[in-house]
Amino acid sequence: MSQLVFDKVVLRYYKPLGTLLLLAGCTVGSHAATYKIEPDHSNVRFAIDHFKTSATTGGFYNVTGILLYDPSAKTGDISLIIPIKSLNTGNKIFNLKLMGPDFFNMEQYPLARFESTKWHFTSDKDNPKVTRVDGKLTLNGQTHPISLLATKFNCYLSSPINRTVCGGNFTATIDRTQWNIKKYVLFGMTKNLTLNIQVEAAKQ
Which pLDDT belongs to residue 63? Predict the structure, then answer.
């Protein structure tokens, strides 16, 4: 893919982050604070059973996006941009294999993205906690709903930057064949792909 085409693709996917801010009042309420995803502290890691032996693991890094969050109103919205080029398994040759057309197909689809559709909270009125985030995952040219279980999510005042920071860990197991990633399924490599998503975002 040429740099010009790649730039156009990036613009196509990053542009909605700006419009997301304009629509925030309609989607999650006018009191929702805006947070910018910190790429150095955000990633999407994956694990897949390797022919019923050890699990193959890797991750995508330099994740960017926007978080809108208002715990008092029990509302949230998040949009993540995931660059396929950032894939790392610790093996350069295997990285290239996974970025190829049989798997994540970086050449044709250089970016994946997640956009939330609904946030779920505990019933605690004074200190509601995030329990689950439903949304849509776009990967390899396919978009399907997924549900992320929140294993932790919290906000705190960061002294080094003097800003509120929100972050947490989420997990989900998806059927990779729904996103047209079917290589080796017939030979015993499971179609179930476990995702572990870590996000951290600073208040703007």
Answer: 98
